[in-house]
Design brief:
Layout lengths: L12 E7 L1 E2 L11 E2 L6 H18 L4 E9 L7 H14 L1 E12 L6 H10 L3 E7 L3 H6 L6 H14 L2 E8 L6 H14 L3 E6 L7 H7 L8 H17 L4 E3 L2 E3 L6 H7 L3 E5 L4 E6 L2 E7 L3 H11 L3 E6 L2 H12 L8 H8 L5 H9 L3 E3 L5 E3 L7 H9 L1
Parallel strand pairs: 1-4, 1-11, 2-3, 4-5, 5-6, 6-7, 7-8
Antiparallel strand pairs: 8-10, 9-10, 12-13, 13-14, 15-16
Helix pairs in contact: 1-2, 2-3, 6-8, 11-14
Length: about 400
């Protein structure tokens, strides 16, 4: 009797919109963000985003948009009318799920009650605030332009305006102790109704922090202290009812970021705007997209050629498998081995899985999924490399 292939749930389809402009460049940031002192020609950028959306829609006909994410940069520097124009265009080009999650990233310095109300009226129903720290000394160290008072006020405005809110904090900061982090995190959890993103500070290439680190002027906690900070994070968030659902993200059950779950579950998404990335499935298989990162160059290219794509490449089965593992094993729900086999045409090597289980790095769930354990998460890259080999 022929075997029946398992039904693999659709991880969804989303749209990412990149707004690359910031008021200042944070010293730890390696994102595609740019400081511009003059006025931004938002009408031109909106027209170009619409042009790119039309080009991507032609490649992804029949999809239903489950989420829209405005990232950056600082999207809360956009006029609400610009945001409304983007959402309206997406709704015309694809079917927009009536329950679609529409997220906008914001910095506390650019939060005003009237502006937030404008975003809400434009269709945004979730906001993610870049708070990053709850003490003024570390906010200054991180190059943030707001203080704690402004951050808390922004959180209050967001909670009163939007259906859903989240905010980010960075830990493992220079000189930070587990006790100090525990106190700060407890304060954050008291103000977080549903979702927190908690990132360990890492020194990224080509950042100001990298220069300071090389010069011996910046030292982040050593590995053993960083692990203690990680353990504190997991313990307190679990206790507060916001367990980790991804390596750096915590939420009450059912309040996870739907857009980011599309990434981590290896779904499809289009990316528009300077430096945006996308993954779509066409007749030729899964393709990787990337756009011109320089804002003014992107604008010129889109206006002259109809797209800012600088990368449109077919992914090999091996590349798809690697990406699937790298994204999916970040999730506490783990990955479905059947999906890996469907993507790559091969099974996991049983002896490798057995070795990882024996070493306490991964485990099987009751549903037959493979997930990384709490011991494996701090060395996730090594676990992924071992499984992918």
């Amino acid at each position: 009797m022929a075997s029946i292939a398992p039904m693999i749930p659709d991880p969804g389809f989303g749209v990412y919109v990149h707004w690359p402009f910031c008021l200042s460049k944070c010293p730890y940031c390696d994102f595609n963000s740019h400081v511009r002192r003059g006025r931004i020609e938002e009408d031109r950028y909106l027209a170009a985003i619409r042009t790119e959306l039309k080009q991507r829609a032609a490649l992804t006909q029949g999809r239903t948009v489950r989420s829209i994410f405005f990232g950056g940069g600082t999207p809360s520097l956009m006029a609400p009318e610009t945001v409304a124009g983007v959402i309206e265009t997406i709704g015309k080009l694809w079917k927009l799920d009536p329950k679609a999650e529409i997220t906008l990233e914001a910095n506390p310095t650019s939060v005003e009650a009237g502006r937030f109300q404008g975003y809400r009226e434009a269709g945004v129903n979730r906001v993610s605030l870049g708070v990053q720290a709850l003490n003024d000394a570390d906010l200054k160290l991180l190059g943030r332009l707001h203080n704690v008072e402004e951050a808390l006020r922004a959180l209050d405005i967001a909670a009163a305006t939007f259906e859903r809110t989240s905010f980010d904090l960075i830990y493992a900061r220079p000189g930070q102790t587990p006790r100090a982090w525990a106190n700060e995190l407890e304060e954050a959890l008291a103000r977080a109704p549903e979702h927190l993103s908690l990132y360990q500070l890492t020194i990224e290439p080509d950042t100001m922090f990298e220069q300071l680190s090389r010069a011996g002027k910046l030292k982040i906690p050593k590995a053993d202290v960083a692990r203690d900070l990680w353990d504190v994070t997991q313990e307190l968030t679990e206790k507060a009812g916001l367990p980790a659902y991804e390596i750096s993200n915590h939420a009450r059950p059912g309040r996870e970021s739907r857009h980011n779950l599309i990434y981590w579950r290896y779904g499809e998404y289009v990316g528009v705007g300077p430096g945006a990335h996308g993954r779509i499935v066409s007749k030729g298989g899964r393709r990787a997209h990337a756009t011109e990162p320089h804002p003014e160059m992107w604008l010129t290219v889109v206006e002259s050629e109809g797209t800012g794509l600088i990368e449109d490449e077919a992914l090999s089965l091996e590349e798809q498998g690697d990406e699937f593992l790298l994204m999916g094993l970040r999730l506490t729900e783990g990955i479905d081995p059947a999906r890996f086999q469907a993507l790559t045409g091969k099974r996991f090597e049983a002896s490798r899985v057995a070795d990882l289980i024996a070493n306490g790095m991964v485990e099987y769930t009751r549903q037959g999924r493979i997930r990384v354990t709490s011991e494996g998460f701090p060395v996730l890259d090594a676990v992924v490399a071992d499984l992918a080999a």
